[in-house]
Amino acid sequence: MTKISVIIPVYNAQKTINQCLRSIFNQTFKDFEVIVVNDGSTDSSWSILESWQDKIKIFNQENKGAPAARNFGFEKSSGEYIIFCDADIIMKPTMLEKMSWVLDKDKDLAYVYSSFKFGWKTFKLWPFDLAKLKQMPYIPTTSLIRRNYFSGFDQSLKKFQDWDLWLTISEKGGKGIWLNEILFLAVSGGTMSNWFPKIFFYLPLQPKKIKKEIEKFNSAKEIIKNKHGI
């Protein structure tokens, strides 16, 4: 069995996918497979992926969204561990080595996550805390998961599919662990979810676009809380 399956959903990622793939193949850890699901891209993503076809497994599907692409990629994977890597992620060279070492060392852990950077902003994070996880989503999608704990992304959700996943794993007794290092960068302007500074939530006069995003954020948060009874 392959040690790690790296699963990448791609939708119109022509600006970032080359950097992402280069960072994966520059890993110090080498026992991995890369599965890319092209989710109905309309830009030049496909032609870029073709240039990597000797190194990666490429699958096409009509546009269904990242959760569906990730689930499809998982079905095609064989790794003992899996990691979902958005097309705008740049991994540090030792990321897979350090994460896999943590799961190898403790067989009771379901997944390992790290701090990261999103553009100029550093997300330092903190040790795994189930009570805090029930309050807010703080564990990134790009975390290394033990295969038997992955339950699939809920494709009916429009937001917070990753939060839902970590809560579902915890309900099955799975625990995560924080690796206190910045192990990847998400390129600003890529496909990763938009990040809004906390101050935007408290401005008395919010820009219309930001106000709309905050309303969607709060609505999606309630859906997750109701689903998991928190």
3D architecture notes:
This protein has 230 residues and is α/β, with parallel strands linked by helices. The protein folds into two domains: 4-191, Spore Coat Polysaccharide Biosynthesis Protein SpsA, Chain A (Alpha-Beta Complex); 196-230. It is built from seven helices and nine strands, in the order βαβαβαββαββαβαβα. It has helices at 17-25, 45-50, 66-75, 95-105, 130-135, 161-171, 208-228, and strands at 4-10, 32-39, 57-61, 81-84, 89-91, 109-118, 121-123, 144-146, 175-186. Strands 1, 2, 3, 4, 5, 6, 7, 8 and 9 form a nine-stranded mixed β-sheet that branches. Helix 1 (17-25) links the parallel strand 1 and strand 2 (32-39). It is globular, with a radius of gyration of 17 Å. It starts with a strand and ends with a helix. Mean pLDDT is 91; it is low at 191-203. This is Glycosyltransferase 2-like domain-containing protein. Residues 5-135 form the Glycosyltransferase 2-like domain.
Described by strand count, sense and barrel closure, the largest sheet is: 9 strands, mixed
The fourth-level CATH homologous superfamily of the largest domain is Spore Coat Polysaccharide Biosynthesis Protein SpsA, Chain A
Distance linking N and C termini: 38 Å
Give unreliable regions as ranges.
Answer: 191-203
Helix content: 25-40%
Give the H and E element order: EHEHEHEEHEEHEHEH
Q: Helix- and strand-based class?
A: alpha/beta
Quaternary state reads single chain
How many independent structural domains?
2
What's the CATH topology label of the largest domain?
A: Spore Coat Polysaccharide Biosynthesis Protein SpsA, Chain A
Global mean pLDDT: 91
Q: Give the strand content.
A: 15-25%
Annotated CATH architecture of the largest domain: Alpha-Beta Complex
- β-strand number: 9
What CATH first level of the largest domain would be assigned?
Alpha Beta
- The radius of gyration is 17 Å
Mass-distribution shape: globular
Number of discrete helical segments:
7
